[in-house]
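Journal club side-thread
Mid-discussion, someone asked how the predicted structure for our own chain would compare to the paper's figures. Pasting it here so we can look after the session.
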Amino acid sequence: MKVARTVRRRGKGGDRIKSLPISIDLAILFTAIFFPLFLIVGMRSESLEDVRYVEMKYTAALRTAVQDGGMMLNDNETQAKESAYDSLKFMRADKEKALDSFARTLYVNMGIAEDTAAQAALWWYIPAMVVLDYDGYYLYVSQTYSSEHGEEIMQHRWTPKIPYAWTDDTGNSIRFTLDSFVHVFESGPNRWQSGFRKDLIGETGVALLDDEDMFEQVRRITIMNTIQDQLAYYIQRHNQIALRNGISYTFTLPLISREDWVNTIDDIGIMAFIQGIPVGDQYYNNYALGGGRLVKAPVYFGGIDSRGLKYYYRDACQYNYRVEEVFPNAKEAAAAGYQEKSCYNPGVM
């Protein structure tokens, strides 16, 4: 219903009555009530934009630092140990170089390259770092230790290397690596054996080695679970230490996607976690993963010999076959009707 007010005016024709709507009054009232709210919302939007900008800056800094740290893992800690395994993935990752590169890049991109106090404070928001080596991993986490004067000191330090270990119900155990090379302990004869899975088939009493698909599944799950369990433990410890130093934020192990895990455990690499940095009225939490090196994926050629027989073989092999197809893996080549022929069995017909 339209509300009006009455205004009496005098003119030549006498008194006239004119009705004016009070919509103007309502508009003024509406503005008086809601303008402060609009102003607050606008300020909040600007604040959120600032928060997003800072978060993007931190994310870029973290990812760049992890990538730089991961690249330093290319340098073997001990070059003489390279011949210990016949594996393209074997390396003794130099975790100290990786840490130095990670920290230096992070400080520069966070704008604290010259501020040692800010650098020390930043590490309270980094509950854990992980360096994945070929046959185990290291954690860089908060730990307490006694100085030479008997004082208790808390700071980030490396743990000893933790193996990717798995044990079955009968006491047999396997120490996995980032490929199929294993160290196997048989509880019956009480002995250790080492080698690639395919070379140990039938040589041990560990049934897992005889099933390639199951072996690969258990290997990946074992690596993921052992790292996550240790991370959860040390992050919880970091909570206790941080609380004693005035940081009330509760650090937790973030949910890492399966895709990230699969990519991470395919080769040596580094993982870093940042949590609890105040940004406005929120907290910045993120993690980043960086590979140590790029490993060229093998290519399989599908060729036909002079007799019309179809074979597939690695691109590293040298055969004068007529190449008909190229495959990303051996499984697809076999499914297309090609028979395997490796460089090591050139006499296969």
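Post-session note: The chain has a mean pLDDT of 78.
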